[in-house]
Amino acid sequence: MIISVKQVMQGVAVLAFVSALAACGGGGSATIGGTVTGLRAGASVTLQDNNLDNLTIAGDQGFTFVTSIPANATYNVSVLTQPVGQSCQVGNASGVIDAAADDVTIVTVTCALASSVGGTVAGLAAGNSVFLALQNGQLLAIAANGTFAFPGLLASGSSYSVAISAQPAQQTCVLTNASGVVASGAMALVSVSCN
């Protein structure tokens, strides 16, 4: 097989072009990530990038979305599901991937307490609801096992008291840690056990 000088030069030109593309990130893609802070123990937040690519994060930590974004495309990180009793805000939430497709690592998700009194419900039968009342008159209907939170913050050092205002049909629920004093920066955890 004989290779002409023209073919060699064409091959060199193609290699040079490919090398140039690789050096400038030509057509690459970038990952989107950052850090979550302020998430209370046992809580999780679900984030989205461009209304897709759901990512659930439990605890303060770094994160990276699975799906990469092509160079020159936009990204937009938002909160899909807030943690119970907290509110999370996204900083550096949106932007455009640079031409070199450098990874984005500057997204910040900062979570803060949005409730002073919450807790867990266990043993509630499917289709049933239990109704809780906070001493300030707030009522909360709970229709599933899991976590709950009364909306709003109470002053640190103030007392709280939770009562069952209506039992579920054919069940009895009892409360544990139903009263106490609100601590600064913490949510009082009430346990609701139904049988």
List descriptors.
195 residues; mainly beta; 2 domains; 4-stranded mixed beta sheet; 4-stranded antiparallel beta sheet; 10% helix
Structural description of this entry:
By secondary structure, the chain is mainly β. The chain folds into two domains: 27-113, Immunoglobulin-like (Sandwich); 117-194. The protein contains one helix and 18 strands. The strands form five sheets. The chain has a four-stranded mixed β-sheet with strand order 5-2-10-8, with no helix packed on it. Strands 4-3-7-9 form a four-stranded antiparallel β-sheet, with no helix packed on it. A hairpin with a 4-residue loop joins strand 12 and strand 13.
What structural class results from the helix and strand content?
A: mainly beta
The CATH architecture category of the largest domain equals: Sandwich
Order of helices and strands: HEEEEEEEEEEEEEEEEEE
User: What's the level 1 CATH class of the largest domain?
Assistant: Mainly Beta
For the largest beta-sheet, the strand count, sense and barrel status come to: 4 strands, mixed
Q: How many individual helices?
A: 1
Note the beta-strand portion: over 45%
Question: Which radius of gyration do the C-alpha atoms yield?
Answer: 26 Å
Cα end-to-end separation: 85 Å
What's the mean pLDDT score? 89
State the domain count: 2
Query: What oligomeric assembly is this protein in?
Result: single chain
Overall shape: it is elongated
Low-confidence stretches: 11-25
